[in-house]
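Researcher: For the record, we're logging two predictions in this thread. I'll number them. Prediction 1 follows.
Model: Prediction 1, sequence and structure:
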Amino acid sequence: MVNTESEITLLVDGAPRRLTVDNRVTLLDALRDRLGVTSPKKGCDHGQCGACTVLLDGRRVTTCLTFAVACDGAEVTTSAGLAVDGRLHPLHQAFLDHDGFQCGYCTPGQICSAAGVLDEARAGWPSAVTADVRTTPSLGEEEIRERMSGNLCRCGAYVNIVAAISEVAGKGEAGP
């Protein structure tokens, strides 16, 4: 008989969480259904919309395409986990200031992805539109749009989302 369940430990928004999951369960379903962490949203369930984006060991991932068992021992940071001691993360505040959301459904994934974008650019990772891959990319509008292209907003708040990320990037404020 094959064992179809595994016991895993995740560090979710700073808190260790231990659970037993079916080996086929996605990280999204483990977070939402088993741990009650509702910040990542189930949108397309095919990795196409980005609503389920979190930071996994500091890198952005779509949780609907990630098996929970593959994350044993990993640190999971959701949009809610970016806040520190009840204070909004600079991206949270910028999204509020620039009205970077309308219905808000995609916002947690957008914010996690934006935090990843800031870290990637700071680390010097180029994108498809980076003019000179030998230099640290500048997060202008085109660069932000390219890097955020995996996160969809049905309401069309893209102009405001880009403005929010631009503001935080311009201040040199970090991701998580």
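Researcher: Logged. Prediction 2.
Model: Prediction 2, sequence and structure:
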Amino acid sequence: MDLMTLVGPVMTSPLLYPLLAGLSSLDGVVPMIPSEAAVLAAGVFAHTGTPSLSLVVAATALGVFIGDHLAYGLSRSVFGPRLINRSQHVSQTVAAAGQQLNSRAGLLIVTSRFLPGGRVTMNAACGTARLPLSRFSPASAIAALAWAAYTAGLGFLGGEAFVENPLLGLAVGLGLSLAFGGAIKLTRRRTTRRMARPRVRPLPYAA
């Protein structure tokens, strides 16, 4: 019995939607939870009509939105700094992200959703910097819907392209997702370095 035969009953069950919402919520606090693989698998099965692709996207987006606010609230509480400061790398990354929130919070929240580990870091930065919910929540909603549609859509396309081998479609979807996230991370890193370079002004001409 292969893997897809084992997960088939779950993917055709009405309990799939609350399961996706729960996994996507917990993933905002515990990054080790494989919510992306679950959403991709649901997208692969959705090409047959069951489960519903639109419901997969809606349940996932709702879960991501809730998870974002859980991480935001936790990092804003008294426990946030204690958890963040346990790792020097995490604390430095959160501090660096927090410095850019005043000028482009919405853009950073949306783009970080597609970066490996970017969701947790940005949510922690927003909570630590006490970014107002009036700015955080709308950006989180857009990011959640965009990521849910993108991830489920990748699985759906993989399921259509590899009808006879859904597992291969899932693997291709994961590969494309990782490649896209790596491309965004590389672009952001180059942009940050370019902006950080000091601009040398020419000296005034001395007569």
